[in-house]
Amino acid sequence: MAEVHHFAYGWITPIMAYSLSVLGSLLGLICTARVRKLPTARKRVSWLILAAVAIGGTGIWVMHFMAMLGFAVVGSDIRYDVPTTALSALVAVVVVGCGLFIVGLGRPTAVKIAIGGVLTGLGVNAMHYMGMAAMRLDGDVDYDLMRVGASIAIAVVAATVALFLSVTVRTGAAIFGSALVMGVAVCGMHYTGMSAMSVQLEEHGHLTGATSMTLIAPIALAVVFVVMGLIYSVLAAQTDEDRAGTAYINARLSGG
Q: Residues 208-223: what's their mean pLDDT?
C-alpha cells in the first residue's frame, strides 16, 4: 500500500482551503440576504445564481482543489483529467443552485430545506468523488466505505445547515459567523472523504492530464474575477434606503 500525504505542504493548503470556503460562503450568504428583501421570484433569480456561484464555485469546488494541492502519493506523480475536473466544478455550482432555488423561491419551509439539503449534500459529495476520479496516478485507488458514508452524511448535514442559514441569517455578525461554520463543515466533508482513500501502487504507463500547478493559474484567475464580480454586484445593488430615496425624488419631480 502506498504512503499517502494529505498535508504535503503542511498547514498552508488546509488554511488556504478553509479561507476560500469561508470567503465563498460569506459572499453567498450576503447574496441570499439580498434575496429575502426582493418582492418577486423573478428579481430573486439573479441573486440566487450569484449565491450558487459563490458557495458552489468558490466555497466548495475551489476549496476542494486548493486542498488537493496538498495531496501526494509517495512513488507516483499525479495528473488531472481537465474535462472531468471542469465538469466537477459545474456540478458543484448546479447542485448548490438547485438547493438555493428550492428554498429561495416561495416561502421557505422545514420540508423544503430538508429536501434541498439532501439533494445538495448528495450532489456536493458526487462533485468530490468526481474530482477524485479525475486524478491520474500510477496505482489503483480504493475507498473505505464506512468513511465514504461518513463524508456523505457530513455533506448532507452541512448542506441542510447552509440552506437553513441562507434563509434565516440577517445581521452582518450572524452572516460572518455562519460563513465560519460553513467553512468548517465543507472542509470536514472533504478531508473525511480523503481519509477514506488508499492507493496500491501499480505501473500504468505514461500519465496523461494536467498537473495541479498547471491548473492553479487559470483557477486563481477565475476566482479573482468571480470574487470581484460578486463584490461589485453586492456593492452596486440598491438598498432599501436607495430605493426609498429614488421613489421620493421621483414623486417630488412628478409632483413639481
A: 84
Query: pLDDT tens digit string along 69-106?
Result: 888 888 888 899 999 999 999 999 999 999 888 888 87
Whether residue 29 contacts residue 183, with contact meaning beta carbons closer than 8 Å, is answered with no
Whole-prediction pTM:
0.84
pLDDT digits (tens, 9 = 90+) for 168-182: 887 888 888 888 888
Taking the CA atoms of the chain, what radius of gyration do you get in angstroms? 20
Residue 83 bridge partners (DSSP): none
Question: Distances in Å between the alpha carbon of 185 and those of 55, 81, 152, 161, 177?
Answer: 13, 27, 12, 9, 13
User: How many other C-beta atoms are found inside a 10 Å radius of the C-beta of residue 123?
Assistant: 22
Measure the CA angle with vertex 112, ends 110 and 115; round to 5°.
Answer: 110
For residue 235, give every residue at least 6 positions away whose Cβ sits within 8 Å of its Cβ, in sequence order, or none.
Answer: none
Region of residue 107 (left: phi > 0; alpha: psi -120 to 50; beta: else): beta
Three cell numbers at 184? 468548517
